[in-house]
Amino acid sequence: MSGRSFAVTLASAAALSACVPPAAAPLAAPADTVAAPRDEPAPRPTLPPPPELVSPLRLGLPPAIAQGGVALGTAPSGATRLTLDGAPVSLAPDGRFLVAADRDATGVLTLSAALPDAHTLTATLPVTPRAWRIERLDQVAKVPVPDADFARRRPAELRQIAAARAADAVSDGWRQRFRWPVTGRISGQFGAQRVYRGEPGSYHGGVDVARGEGTPVIAPADGVVTLAADPPFTLEGRLLILDHGAGLTSAFLHLSRIDVRVGQHVRQGEPIGRVGRTGRASGPHLHWAMTWRGSRIDPQPVAGAMPAG
Ligand SMILES: [Zn+2]
């Protein structure tokens, strides 16, 4: 604290004390003066009431959330602000909201809803662990050292991906029942991880669907295009990112063609590109990845059972 502001503080304290009756003044009014009303309102408490703990079911949420899972809920009417573990959660005008648990989330998530009367409702949502597929490769070394071209290009690509995922576009796609962007054999599951000679590699951040090059890819839900990477990125190839609103995004990797442009609003079921093998891909397939505010989530349970075809 600077000497000046300290001096100001002292001066303020002196001015305040001048307004306070001397300590010896009687606390009660003398009997012969007009009595002040006895039922003066008690001073308002300065601390807000403690949060009311509620069951997640009261907010329309499931009793627990799986690692990599999403859940839709409804905030109590009049709620002004919603947070999950202290981070803001988008609240639709009708009170609907979406929360998700990262692939590596553990313990419980704490959801808090602020009500207009300074009350806070708090629900704790336990995270159910999942058994991720772990493949141990004792004969193979971890990912080879990236070349100079990769090292030069990668930082800008990562910045574009981060910006596209943080765009916070306005869309109601998050409220829809998601569809598979392409159907086919699932050739890679979300969360799977390889351990190379005891050294864990990064886990698989999406679900892979194997289909022939050129197969149309459709929007799994309404969204706004926030990235259309063409020319292809080093790892993701032609990469398309859709923002479904409420912090929920989808990324489609290795496309042979992108048929939409940044800023375009696409509707569920609309063709957005074609399956390919651009970037680091061993064969034609769609890698579909989803995130919610930095949490990586598994698209497979979001899209549900895959229809035949
Ligand atoms: Zn993949």
Précis, in short:
The chain has 309 residues and is mainly beta. The chain has helices at residues 3-18, 148-165, 299-303; strands at residues 52-54, 65-66, 70-74, 81-84, 87-88, 96-100, 108-114, 120-128, 134-137, 185-188, 193-196, 199-200, 207-210, 216-218, 223-233, 237-243, 248-255, 257-258, 265-266, 271-274, 285-292, 295-297.
Description:
The chain has helices at residues 3-18, 148-165, 299-303, and strands at 52-54, 65-66, 70-74, 81-84, 87-88, 96-100, 108-114, 120-128, 134-137, 185-188, 193-196, 199-200, 207-210, 216-218, 223-233, 237-243, 248-255, 257-258, 265-266, 271-274, 285-292, 295-297. The termini are far apart. The chain is mainly beta and 309 residues long. The model is unreliable at 1-35 (pLDDT under 50). Strands 10, 13, 15, 16, 17, 19, 21 and 22 form an eight-stranded antiparallel beta sheet that branches. Strands 1, 2, 4, 5, 7 and 8 form a six-stranded mixed beta sheet that branches.
Provide the residue-averaged pLDDT: 87
Bound molecules: zinc ion
Total strands: the figure is 22
Judging from the principal axes of the Cα atoms, what is the shape?
Answer: globular
Kindly name the structural category: mainly beta
Features:
309 residues; mainly beta; eight-stranded antiparallel β-sheet; six-stranded mixed β-sheet; 22 strands; 33% strand; disordered N terminus
